[in-house]
Specification:
Elements: H1 9-23, H2 29-51
Helix pairs in contact: 1-2
């Protein structure tokens, strides 16, 4: 999993929890999709509200495009 900034720890944990429930047949795929998409959006909104801007986009290896 690629993470853009450190505040995604809660997001990653929520996605992981939903995936574990899904593979154990105790949860639904919709919960995984919700944790991924809505959790990601919430983390980015929180980051923007806290810092006033979103993180600068970079390539995965950190080189300028």
């Amino acid at each position: 999993m690629v993470r853009s900034f450190s505040t995604l720890d809660a997001w990653g944990a929520d996605v992981q929890d939903a995936l574990v429930e899904y593979v154990n047949q105790t949860g639904k795929w919709d919960a995984v999709a919700d944790a991924y998409t809505n959790g990601w959006a919430k983390e980015w909104k929180t980051f923007e509200d806290t810092n006033g801007v979103l993180p600068e986009a970079t390539t995965l290896n950190g080189d300028e495009q």
